[in-house]
Amino acid sequence: MKKKTMAWETIKKISDHFRVQPNLSDYDLTCAEFSWENIRKELDGLPDGKGLNIAHEAVDRHANGPLRGHLALRWLGENDTVLDFTYGDLQEQSNRFANVLQNLGVKKGERVSVLTGRLPQLYIAALGTWKTLGVFCPLFAAFGPEPIYQRLQRGDVKVLVTTERLYRKKVIDLKNRLPKLEHILFVDEVENAGEGLWSMTKMMAEASGEFTIPPTDPEDMAALHFTSGTTGMPKGAIHVHNAVLIHYMTGKYIMDFHRDDIFWCTADPGWVTGTSYGIISPLLHGITNIVDEADFNAERWYKILDKQKVSVWYTAPTAIRRLMRMSTEPRQLHDLTNLRLIHSVGEPLNPEAVIWGRDLLGLPIHDNWWQTETGGIMISNFPSMDIRPGSMGRPLPGIEAAIVSRVAEDKVQVVQERNVEGELALRPGWPSMFRGYLHDEERYRSCFTDGWYLTGDLARRDNDGYFWFVGRADDIIKTSGHMVGPFEVESGLMEHHAVAEAGVIGKPHPMIGQVVMAFVSLKPGFEPSDELRRELIGFAREKLGSAVAPKEIKFQGNLPKNKAGKIMRRLLKARELGLPEGDISTLEEER
Amino acid sequence: MREEEIRDIIFDILLEIAPEADLKTLPHHGDLRKTLDIDSFDFLNLMIGLNERLGVDIPESDYEKLNTLSNMLTYLSARLG
């Protein structure tokens, strides 16, 4: 299907209008001259050629040099406390945490999870884990017990950093189903309680502030990020220390970091953006990273941009659309003159939002595209490049992207014609490409066909090489910028004694992209009622947490199934939205 | 409108969003989003619901003034006279 792409006027970038000369000023030239070897040369590597470690590049190399006293991380607490950490502080704290892990017997490749809000300890734990060659496996605090269990269990997690409240509410009842989880480190307890329950504060205070990072192979596992599947439970995407090349390179060319920048990535480290860009990328560049503990709050956010003098801001469409609801003129109320660059990720940014940024904030918003599996930004609007509102931009230097169509089980064809829809594919081999799904080699293999990594996203490319998002090729739901797997939600609902079957879809929503919506058929003896609907929503929220639970539930006598007995989510969605039902040849008779 | 009536309406809406919540024990001064595990979309729906039920226009820029039950009652009472 061929489509016209140009509807909104292009936002021109005029080279002598930049406040700071962009690191990438000529896209074509940079692409032509690009090599990963040259990027690697801009990093230090461990002393004496002992390899490449994320924490060394992010913290130690600055702490051991002139940036030792530079502000690395400023934490803004919900109650307006501010905690500052220089590169020297981060080095010492992460050394202490690394020693704590070693004292607990954590060995190379073993997983350390963090389940907290955005607290300073989360950032220290991540860095300290990388120092010991442990694997950082972040969890989102708004997950309920079941998603937490799935991730801790599938990830063979050995150590969990959390708070007393979250442990009591979400983890304690899982404990006997998680034999591999040996240690719980509480960020808010002052005494060790025995039986693997430790006070992180006390342990840190007693540990040494000196630590030497062991030799690190760039291919050593560094992070395990869980991402949702369409047919099964979440899968753990494996990332290695070499991913740091992408985090550095995108920090340079896309975030356009310069020495005095103050950067704010609003994503939670429970999701890959909050780790790659909320922790690693800004620290690699030796700049100041802002962390806000609080969740979205329009007034607060403008105050942070103003008072903290944020210069580069990385946020998400859902938040931007919330800011767009306000009738006030942000620049009349807040000083946003330090802000020079805005990026967005999580789901496609609608053209209106790009233009709103230009008109209301004085800066157009740059959309970019990537996913958990890619480890870092792959396709982006660059500061020096004209923006076509609604487009995700062009591939990074060193990244080959294409639109392909699947022509056979093991064969794809590159779509050469422009403005034609197909599946977005990447040529494997970039440094932050996932190296596997933990314990699921088959699922990993199935992501690659005919020499391409198939992203599962549908897109098209225009005549000038800009990519445009079209939709997902599968049933995965994108809500508030987060991926939710329908299977995980359906399994949660099925555990309720009244539920016979459940089919879960993403219902389009102007504010948050998609809303998780469930269709439920009841077991004999149960009748649909508002009371039961509420009970199911509450049941799912307690089990799955607000980030995953359905916001809407509809009762339906029988759910449409194919001949193999699988619920046809696509058909549920088409019917809900009043869209054509498409190919229903596999539909089993509905009774 | 009396404060109890406003509170009942808040609870009515909350019961749609977080039906599992035990609202009888909801602390007056605790952060509502945290206590009830409601995300920012849920909170937005609460604000929209209050606007629909009470006719009070709550601009997005005021949302932080309604972060606890107590603050919510103060804010709404002042506007409902």
What does this structure look like?
The complex is a heterodimer of chains A (591) and B (81). In chain A, 29% of the residues lie in helices and 23% in strands. Chain A has 591 residues and is of the alpha/beta class. Chain B is mostly helical and 81 residues long. Chain B has one domain (3-80): Orthogonal Bundle (Non-ribosomal Peptide Synthetase Peptidyl Carrier Protein, Chain A), CATH 1.10.1200. Helices cover 58% and strands 0% of the residues of chain B. Chain B is built from 4 helices and no strands. Chain B has helices spanning 3-17, 32-36, 40-54, 69-80. In chain B, helix 1 packs across helix 3. Chain B is globular, with a radius of gyration of 11 Å. The mean pLDDT of chain B is 94. Chain A binds chain B through residues 78, 142, 295-300, 318, 322-323, 325-328, 480, 511-512, 515, 534-535, 537-539, 541-542, 545-547, 551, and chain B through 15-16, 18-21, 31, 33, 37-42, 44, 59-64.
Architecture (CATH level 2) name of the largest domain in chain A: 3-Layer(aba) Sandwich
Largest interface: A-B, 30 and 21 residues
Weakly predicted, low-confidence segments of chain B: none
Assembly type of the shown chains? heterodimer
Determine the CATH topology of the largest domain in chain A: Rossmann fold
Write out the CATH superfamily name of the largest domain in chain A. ANL, N-terminal domain
Q: How much beta of chain B, percentage-wise?
A: under 5%
End-to-end Cα distance of chain A: 35 Å
Helical proportion of chain A?
Answer: 25-40%
End-to-end distance of chain B, in Å? 7 Å
CATH architecture tag of chain B: Orthogonal Bundle
Shape of chain B: globular
CATH topology of chain B: Non-ribosomal Peptide Synthetase Peptidyl Carrier Protein, Chain A
Level-1 CATH class name of the largest domain in chain A: Alpha Beta
Radius of gyration over C-alpha positions of chain B, nearest whole angstrom: 11 Å
Q: Structural class of the helix and strand makeup of chain B? A: mainly alpha
Domain Carrier (chain B): 4-80
InterPro entries (chain B): ACP-like_sf, PP-bd_ACP
Protein name (chain B): Acyl carrier protein
Keywords (chain A): Acetylation, ATP-binding, Ligase, Nucleotide-binding
